[in-house]
Specification:
- One of its GO terms (molecular function) is pyrophosphatase activity.
- This is NUDIX hydrolase.
- Keywords: Hydrolase, Magnesium, Metal-binding.
- Its cofactor is Mg(2+).
- The chain is an alpha+beta fold and 139 residues long.
- The protein has one domain: Nucleoside Triphosphate Pyrophosphohydrolase, CATH 3.90.79.
- The protein contains 3 helices and 8 strands; from the N terminus they run E-E-E-E-H-E-E-E-E-H-H.
- Strands 1, 2, 3, 4, 5, 6, 7 and 8 form an 8-stranded mixed sheet that branches.
- The radius of gyration is 14 Å and the shape is globular.
- The termini are far apart.
Length: 139
Amino acid sequence: MKTELVQYGALPYVVVDNEPLICLVTTRETKRWIIPKGWSKVGMPDSTVASREAFEEAGVSGTISEKVLGSYEYRKKLHAFAYAKCRVSVFALHVDRQLLDWPERRQRQIAWLVPHDAANRVSERGLANLIAAFAYEEV
């Protein structure tokens, strides 16, 4: 029986002139564009995990929704030739602060993008759809 891996992600956003901007980060190894995400931690609410990952990976903080915005699946590379299906539950993070220095600043790039560009930049179709749906609801 295969076990589905589960991660928790944040969709960091700000609203400028009535238009949301989405913060994406690159992965450390392949430099693909993604949202900040990570594994559950014992005793920590899932939304807090997502918020902490956004701080560590993108240097952003703010108000995280306690309600799951949506989820998507992707193939997680485990090592050279092994992959597993991973489901990411995503929480919206309304950003009110971005640091100039943060834990993973030298390992990742970040970009603030309009939703259409953010959806086009990510490679996971489910994440792209989630970004597009969020932008539609947010505006």
